[in-house]
Write a structure and sequence with these properties.
Elements lengths: L6 E2 L10 E2 L6 H9 L4 H7 L5 H22 L1
Helix pairs in contact: 1-3
Length: about 70
């Protein structure tokens, strides 16, 4: 998945953290909700401005970041 059009980083929003489509919802927030046991449906119900594609973009972003970190340490 090409998350680059969905995940944005703007210095004036959330301290430059990766966010979803310029919103003030950080990738970290979504990943934390998922890790705490929230379902995608629950996240979408709590944040109606998000889409299923946004959630998948967060996961793809995290996977890509992990892949890059692992390749640096190898």
């Amino acid at each position: 998945m090409d998350y680059t059009k969905i995940i944005t980083m703007e210095p004036d929003k959330r301290g430059g953290k990766p966010c979803i489509r310029g919103l003030r919802i950080a990738v970290y927030d979504v990943l934390d909700y998922l890790a705490s046991g929230m379902s995608i449906a629950e996240i979408l119900a709590d944040f109606p401005e998000l889409t299923d594609e946004d959630i998948r973009a967060c996961l793809a972003f995290a996977a890509d970041r992990e892949r890059r970190l692992m390749s640096r340490s190898a």
